[in-house]
Input
Amino acid sequence: MAGKKIGVLVGSLRKGSYTRMVAKAMCGLNPDLQCEIIEIAALTMYNQDLDTDSPPRDWVELRDRIRACDAILFATPEYNRSVPGVLKNAIDVASRPYGKSAWMRKPCAVVSVSPGAIGGFGANHHLRQCLVFLEMPCLQQEAYIGHANKLFDASGSLANEDTKAFFTKIMQAFGAWIETNAGK
Output
């Protein structure tokens, strides 16, 4: 399994984002997974009228980057019991044009992050509904990261060994999931 390329989409744009901090911390915990954050902040909003033979360059780049990945890790905060618009937009852009989805059959995992106690439960489940439609086999192990504002020290490093062990367990399971579902 060595060297699986993982595209990481982070749904939070905030400077100092806990979601981004969690994603970065998780990415370093399975040496067989080479994670790369795919930035989506400046992605043009999806509009089918623009999806012609010459779609916006940033759409083409996103679609190509997704296709080049072996799997995808989605890291999302929860906004109004769902995913942020920027993440939904990236999902929509890469799923088009119809019949040419870059997401098709890519193994994936979802981690939702919140400073609150329930760890983005609503966003996690809303995102999973989209992934079923996109035919992305999603790791069944659910990861709701609550109280994220208390997980890191002043330098941005994980401050708790139990959290690190939990993140490691998720990333090991994700690696096995990718092996089981790659190329199907």
Q: What stands out?
A: Strands lie at 4-10, 33-37, 71-77, 108-113, 143-145. The chain has a mean pLDDT of 95.
